[in-house]
Amino acid sequence: MLVELPMAWLIVVNVTLWPIIHMGAAWLGTQLPTELFRPDHWCYRERSWEVAGRLYETIFAVRRWKGLLPDGAALFKKGFHKKRLDARNPEYIDRFAKETCRGEAVHWAVLACSLLFFLWNPWKVGLIMVAYGIAVNLPCIITQRYNRIRLCHLANRKDVP
To answer: What distance separates the 2 farthest-apart alpha carbons in the chain?
Structure first.
């Protein structure tokens, strides 16, 4: 802990900073060009261990709860709605897949920011902030990866799992 704050200030800073980090990362993500987000890039492409998305269905039961996650696209003028598939033409599917990359990158960035909380919090509180970051962002990352796998299979005219 580099900065010592009274308990009341710790609470205020922690509670205030999380929404700023979430919104700031999301806004910044919408400002980046879509071309930066390629589903075939090494960090976004499907892995063999994901078993065509079935890993997310069997271990995480993603189909049961993914519809409950909020879609932050409505908050930004440049946002792309990812709540449901609105078309099946190749251009739309390609754009949707790229937007899942953007969403995944934003959630990884927010999760990485959870480490900042160690700067002014005792280490136990820092761990709680990291746990919060994981709890809030991991479901979104899982959903983005799952949806992208399905979209890429659809785009390649494969059977969608």
So the answer is: 58
